Inverse folding.
C-alpha cells in the first residue's frame, strides 16, 4: 500500500518542521513537501500531487481561506486546517469547514511533552482519516424551511457527529422551523471552537443555536451544542429537560462523547426522543443510539453515500441501532416526521 503523501503549508518554519517530523515517523505516510505560502503551495501541488494538505490560516500574500476557496474550485482535495486557538482562528476555521476542509487541528499551545505527544497523535489520526474521506459537493444554497409540528414538552431531538459534522449539522438544522422540539448536539470539537460554531449556525438558522450552559432548559425551537471538551447530559425537571455539563473522563476517547449524551436521553426521554448519528470516524454514539432504540426512541443514521467519513453511522447500523438509514438532506424532515408517525411501521425502512 502506497504511503499517504502529505504537503504542509504554513508560514512558520517551526510548524513545518514539527509537521514533517511527525509525518515522516509514520510508516504509512510521507511529507512530500512544505510551503511557506499559498503561491509556492500551488506549484508544489501541481508537481507533487499530494493526497492530503495541511493548511495554515494566517499567511502572507494570500491567507488560508482564500487559498482554500480557490483550491476547492480548481483541484478539490482533502485539507486539514491548522489553526490558532483564538477568536479569529476559531471563526476562520468554521469558515474553512464550510468551504470544504475535511477537518481542523489547533496549533499546540503548550510545549510540554504530554501536550505535544497528544498533538502528534491527533495529527497522525486526522491525516489518516482525511486520506480516506469522501469529498462531498458543497451545497451552500438556502434550503426551504420545513413545516412545523405540534411540539410536546417532553419531545426532544439528539444528534451526534464528528469528522464532517459541522457541514452536516448545518444541512440538518437550517431547514428546521421554530416549531421543532428542543435539540441537543454532541459534535466532537475541542474547547474554544464550539462557541464560534454555534454563533455561525445561529446566524443561518430559523431556530436558535447556542453553546450549552450548565443547568439551562432544553426549549422548543432551540439547539444546544455541547461545549468543546465537556460532556453533556440531560436530566428531567418540571416535565421537561435541563442540561448537565461535566469534566468526567473521556468516553470512547472523546469529550464531549455522543454515547454520554445519547445514554442520558435514553434514560430521561425514551420514547419521547428522536436521534440521529451523523458522519464521523470511530464508534462513539453507536451503543448510545442502540440504547435509545431499545427505550422506544426513533433512531436514524446518515447514509454512506452522503457521509464524509462513514464510521460512526456504520457502527450504529451494524448494531441494528438505526431504525432508518437516511441521506443527509432528508434527515431534517425525517426527524420531524418521527414525532407524527413514531408508531407507524412505514418508518422502518432500509437502504
Amino acid at each position: 500500500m502506497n504511503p499517504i503523501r502529505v504537503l504542509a503549508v504554513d508560514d512558520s518554519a517551526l510548524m513545518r518542521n514539527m509537521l514533517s517530523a511527525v509525518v515522516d515517523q509514520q510508516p504509512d505516510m510521507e511529507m512530500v513537501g512544505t510551503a511557506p505560502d499559498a503561491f509556492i503551495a500551488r506549484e508544489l501541488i501541481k508537481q507533487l500531487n499530494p493526497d492530503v494538505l495541511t493548511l495554515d490560516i494566517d499567511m502572507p500574500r494570500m491567507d488560508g481561506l482564500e487559498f482554500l476557496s480557490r483550491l476547492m474550485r480548481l483541484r478539490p482535495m482533502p485539507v486539514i486546517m491548522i489553526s490558532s486557538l483564538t477568536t479569529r482562528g476559531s471563526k476562520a476555521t468554521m469558515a474553512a469547514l464550510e468551504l470544504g476542509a475535511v477537518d481542523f487541528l489547533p496549533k499546540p499551545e503548550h510545549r510540554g511533552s504530554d501536550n505535544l505527544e497528544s498533538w502528534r497523535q491527533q495529527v497522525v489520526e486526522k491525516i489518516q482519516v482525511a486520506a480516506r474521506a469522501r469529498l462531498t459537493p458543497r451545497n451552500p444554497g438556502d434550503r426551504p424551511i420545513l413545516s412545523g409540528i405540534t411540539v410536546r414538552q417532553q419531545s426532544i431531538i439528539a444528534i451526534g457527529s464528528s469528522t464532517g459534522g459541522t457541514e452536516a449539522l448545518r444541512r440538518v438544522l437550517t431547514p428546521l422551523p421554530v416549531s421543532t422540539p428542543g435539540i441537543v448536539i454532541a459534535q466532537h470539537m475541542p474547547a474554544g471552537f464550539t462557541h464560534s460554531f454555534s454563533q455561525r449556525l445561529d446566524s443561518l438558522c430559523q431556530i436558535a443555536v447556542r453553546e450549552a450552559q450548565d443547568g439551562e432548559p432544553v426549549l422548543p425551537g432551540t439547539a444546544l451544542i455541547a461545549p468543546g471538551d465537556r460532556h453533556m447530559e440531560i436530566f428531567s425537571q418540571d416535565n421537561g429537560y435541563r442540561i448537565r455539563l461535566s469534566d468526567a473522563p473521556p468516553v470512547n476517547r472523546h469529550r464531549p462523547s455522543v454515547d454520554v449524551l445519547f445514554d442520558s436521553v435514553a434514560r430521561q426521554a425514551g420514547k419521547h426522543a428522536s436521534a440521529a448519528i451523523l458522519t464521523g470516524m470511530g464508534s462513539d454514539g453507536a451503543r448510545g443510539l442502540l440504547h435509545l432504540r431499545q427505550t422506544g426512541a426513533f433512531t436514524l443514521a446518515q447514509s454512506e453515500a452522503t457521509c464524509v467519513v462513514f464510521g460512526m453511522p456504520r457502527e450504529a447500523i451494524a448494531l441494528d441501532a438505526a431504525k432508518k438509514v437516511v441521506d443527509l438532506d432528508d434527515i431534517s424532515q425525517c426527524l420531524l416526521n418521527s414525532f407524527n408517525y413514531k408508531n407507524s411501521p412505514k418508518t422502518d425502512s432500509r437502504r
About this structure: Residues 4-132 form a domain with the Rossmann fold fold (CATH 3.40.50.2300).
